[in-house]
Structures are given as C-alpha cells and as structure tokens.
Amino acid sequence: MLFNSVEYLVFFPVVFIIYWLLKDRYKRQNMLLLISSYIFYGWWDYRFLSLIIFSSFLDYFVGLKIEVAQGKKNKQRWLMVSLISNLGLLGIFKYYNFFASSFANSMSTIGWDVNDLTLNIILPVGISFYTFQTLSYSIDIYRGRINATKNMVAFFTFLSLFPQLVAGPIERASNLIPQIERKRMLNNALIKNGVFQIIIGLFRKVAIADNLGVYVDSVYANYDLHNGSTLLIATLFYAFQIYFDFSGYSDIAIGSAKLLGFNFHRNFNFPYFSRTLTEFWRRWHITLSFWLRDYLYISLGGNRRGIAMTYRNLLLTMLIGGLWHGSSWNFVIWGGIHGLFLSIEKFTFSKFNIKTFNAFGYIYTFVVVLIAWIFFRAPDLTAAFTIFSKIVSFDFGVLFIGNINSFVNAICLLSLGIIIDLKIFRSDIPLENYGVQYNTLKLSVLVSIIIIILCLFYSTTENFIYFQF
User: Fold this and answer.
1) CB 240 within 8 Å of CB 175
2) Is residue 71 classed as helix, strand or coil in its secondary structure?
3) CA 245 to CA 248: how far, in whole Å?
4) Using one digit for the tens of pLDDT, what is the confidence trace for 394-416?
5) Choosing a second label site near 239 at 20 to 30 A (CA), which of 112, 223, 313, 411?
6) Is the sign of the CA dihedral 190, 165, 447, 196 positive or negative?
7) Cis peptide leading into 430, omega within 30 of 0?
8) Angle 127-142/72-90 helices, nearest 10 degrees?
9) Which residues are catalytic?
10) Residue ranges in 265-359 assigned as alpha helix (H)
C-alpha cells in the first residue's frame, strides 16, 4: 500500500477513527496497530509477512535471552543468532544474485564458464529497513543500553508499525517501544504538525518528485542518445527528485505517526544546505546515518585506533552503506565516493584545525553529491561512466526538452519546492513543528491550495524510489 494511493486515503482515516475510539485502552490500540500494519504490509504480497513475523519472534526471544545470559560470551552467542539470522535472510533475498552473477563474471574473465547460479528471488519490500531496526534492538540490549521488553505485542508493533515499516525512519527501540507501552494522547499541536507535514510530504512527492522523474527517466533510459547538457540537467533533476521523493515519504510517515500520538525521529534536515559532506550526512537520511555510525563505524573501531584505521573504518562504513542501498557495483562506487571525500574532509579539518568550509562549501558539497548521484541513478556501470564522461568533457549541445509543458511544470514546481524549503530552513523551526505556526483557518486554506496543486500536477508515477532498497 502506497502513501500516495487511494487505498491509503481510505485505510488511514479508518484506522485513525477506530484507534482513537479506543483511546482509553492503549493495549487494544496496540493490537489494532499491529493488525493494521500487517494489512498494510501484506497489501503488496502477503507471503512476505512470514519474514517479518519470523524476525519479530526471533528477536523478541533473543532479546530476552541476551538480557538474562550470564557472561559476555553467552550474550555474544545469542547476539550472533540475531545477526546471522537477520543478515542471512537479507543476504539471500537482496544480495545472493548479485554475488552469484559477480562470481560468474569474474570467472569468465579467466576463461572459466560457470553455470548460471542466480535464483528467481523477489526482494521483499522494506526488508533492509526493518532488518536494521530489529538488529539495533538486539545490539542495544547486548550493550546494556536498553532492557528487553516482555511485551510481545509492543515489540511486534515496534518492528512493523506501518508509517515507518517500508522505508523508515529507522526507529530505535529506546525511542519507540516506550511510546508503544504507554498511553498516547492527541492534542491540537500534534494534529496541526501532523497534517502540515503529511501535506508537505505529498506535495514533495506527487507534485515535485514525480514530475521531475518523468524527464529523468526519459533521459537516463536513452543516455547514449543525449549530449552532456541534457544529461547534466537530468542529473540535477534527479538530485532533487530523490530528495523530494524520499523526504516526502518521511514527511508522510512522521506526520501519520503524529496523528497516532507517536513522535518519530527526524529523517531529513535540508541536506542541500550543507557546506561539507560531513554536514550533508548529518542532514540526509539521518536515521540511517546515525545507525551506520553507532552500529557499524563504532563497531569497527571508529576513531579509537589511529588515523589510518579511522579512514579505513570511514571508507568501509560508506562502502557497506552504499551496498545496503542496492545489490549493484553502482551503489558500492556511490558509497566509495562519499567515503573518500569524507576521509579527505576529516584529514583537511584535522590538518588545518578547521570545523567547516566557507560559503564555497555549498558548491563543493553539491558537486560531489551530484557526481555520486550519477552512479546511484544509472542503470549500470557502463551507463554511469558514459554519462559522467559526457558531462565532464563538456559534450554540450542543444538541450533536449521533450514535452515543453511537462518540462516547464517541473522547473516551476521545483522552484516552488526550493523556495518553501528555504523559508522553513531560515525560520530555524523544524518542519516537524512547523504546523503550529498556523491557526486552523490558515492551515485549512494552505492544505486546500496544496490539494488543488496536487490535482493539477498529478503524475502517473506512484512508487517511492527507496522502496527498491
């Protein structure tokens, strides 16, 4: 079920009404959320429910075992059960074909023809997100940061809560389970903030991202036919398409959660207003960035083992983070580009004792991110290097416009989106708390205007980009 679908437009109000009719019985609310979340997830393919239910049972009991286990080694054994099981499932469904085909290709280069080892496997929606979420629960118990919950319904709800189930934010048990285990209240501030963020999210996704995507898809699908100017514009459009698409999803998720009485972590904080790549990753997909820092970078040793190991750990973290996004060498290179420049920044800052760059940093950061997006979006490595070479060799010519109305609409909507972002960014008020700036009448008018815009510029594109990860 998609946030921008008619089904969700019916599903959420029904859940919302029944949910708050049970407001004095929060345990029944939790059961309703659990059932609703399984319906939401099973809407794509009910067979995938077995995977998330398995992970829920596994880590619920593993968490209890880790907490009562005597001695570090015994705790480690139970933690390994969680790591091997969850990463094993993720590896089979997401990475088996990638490594099998990579092995076959590498063998063919030395003259050894290997039979096709790939399998006909469908990638379950959201498996990368809920796998990271359940792993953080087991690791936090092992580290002594949280206690294992004995409330099975609360834990199952934590792992499957539908607003964040498919594409985050990646919530920590320390934040979400306590909210699930206590009574929730709905107030005027939550309603205003939730409604405002949902409507902004829909505007970002439906009006901006989907209209940009029409041009991006047409160019990248025929990259060999276009010159550098067209490919540059398409890449610029993609940089904003993926931002507005994914931040729009996060906005709808966070706003929906607010209307159910929950507070999720912020996931985007205007990342293109960053002066360094380090700052970019503190603003882009924040819950993933912090997950990689806390559970991968620090586990590898962080910056505790000397400068050389720090660079190694940083580069490995970003390479693995790239691979998390997809089973392709494109994503590995994308992560490698970010890891390389993050390491260069760390060296530069320590060498010259500075904390950030000046205004030129905005240009530098955006250019690095833009180059990396080429590898993220291109269908394969050959396409990525071809597109990159055409752009940097200034192979420019007449810009391909396509449908002039669609092109102009995309530019106008993008400009409006940037203006809105700039206004909120300069206000120093987080988007998550921006709705209370308006009284009920002004908020109603604003919502009505955005709904009209959505109807006028609705695109046939529906899927969110991060669903494929």
Assistant:
1) no
2) coil
3) 5
4) 878 888 888 888 899 899 999 99
5) 313
6) positive
7) no
8) 180
9) 325
10) 277-283, 286-292, 307-325, 329-352
